[in-house]
Design goal:
Elements: H1 2-57, H2 62-74, E1 77-83, E2 88-91, H3 92-97, H4 101-110, H5 113-116, E3 123-129, E4 132-141, H6 145-195, H7 210-259, H8 266-293, E5 302-305, H9 306-316, H10 318-324, E6 327-331, E7 337-340, H11 342-359, E8 365-373, E9 376-383, H12 390-393, H13 411-421, E10 425-431, E11 435-443
Parallel strand pairs: 6-8
Antiparallel strand pairs: 1-2, 1-4, 3-4, 5-7, 8-9, 9-11, 10-11
Helix pairs in contact: 1-2, 1-6, 6-7, 7-8, 8-13, 11-13
Amino acid sequence: MFKKFLLILLFMAGLGVSSSILLRELVVRDFNRFTEAEQEDRVSWVVADLESAFVKQKGWNPEMAVEDAVWALQLGLDTRVRDRDGTIIMETSRALASLEPEQRVRLKAASIFAQLAGTGEFHAYPLFLHGEEIGQLEVRFLPDARNSFFISRTNRLLAYSALILGVIACVLSIVLARRLSRPIVRISQAAQNISQGNLTERVEIPGNDELACLGQSFNTMANTLQVQNKLRKQICANLAHELRTPLTIMRGQLEGVLDGVIANDESRIRLLLEENQRLTTIVASMEEFFEAQASVLSLDIHQLPLRQLFDNLALNFEVAAREKGVVFRVESDDETIVSADPDRLSQVLINLISNALKVTPPGGAITLGGKQTASGCIITVTDTGCGIAEEDISLIFERFYRGKDGGLGLGLAIVRELVDAHGGTIEVSSQKDAGTVFTLRFPSEPKTPQFSTTAS
């Protein structure tokens, strides 16, 4: 990962330096074009002046040609003037020779004519008068030291900047590549450790960027896996605890009967039958849960009047509620309809009501509520019991999670599986010593049954 990031960053740095070089080439090209255009303009000035002098003098005047040759030299041009017969009338070297020594030295010092005399090619420009050629101007362009200085200075600055920026880009690429790859490598190592069973592995990535969010998501996943693993480990202890008692009782009773220590009477058989029934209930609960989780439940969806279902449940729990001194209330109108499987919905509500009865003290109340909404139906089961501890609320729907009151820890897990199968949701809110509210939301048109895929 480090090498990949480094190659990408170095490529971007190289692309930046290449762009600078390309930009320099474009600037120099345009500058050369500008210089060439300027030189052509200077030639046109000299051509126009020679043609004008020819008209004024009605022919070629060597003295006027000398002036034009000196002026052209000051413009950076080495010139020769020929008449229509090709005879050289004037050239820069002859014009300089005709000047006073002081003038000649000053002109040569101001140009590089002396160094370049006799080198380079001349370019011919015809001279016309009334459409008739009267001669020819031959020009050799003298390099401008200022232009050469500009180009050399540009090349030098580009070389220095490319070197400095290249070094800085390489250093920054290495630093950034390490900084970017280190969290990813850390997460990869942590994931490998988790795959080997070390669920306490966590990563610390500071900041608020995407990598920090990835680290937080990884830690959340690891926390969830650790909790799930802890719950999975509890299954053996829970099952052993739940199965050991009836099996131990049955074995002791049967051994006593075989040894003649215990009489094989009706009460003994009834005790063995009760323990057998306890085992059957445990196995049936587990089978029901795993059946729901394995998505083999077949829902028979109907449009159910919710008030009628609530009234039937109230009758079923009437005796148990009266014996405990708990008031059972129903709050729903006759028009409230829920789309659900009657048996499965009854199973869900019976489980929730049974739990509410266990935690609601005498004088308390259990309320079944129903309300129709535009998207479906909302069912609430409210009690005035002891409430659920805050640290337990996020775990009560986990399989094999047992609260302080014991139990196998499958009841609410089955409830969630069945609600999910209807395409609904279940939520819980609770206050310590104030009561608990379970809220179930069922859509008006249940989707194809979908079951949760939490870790098994």
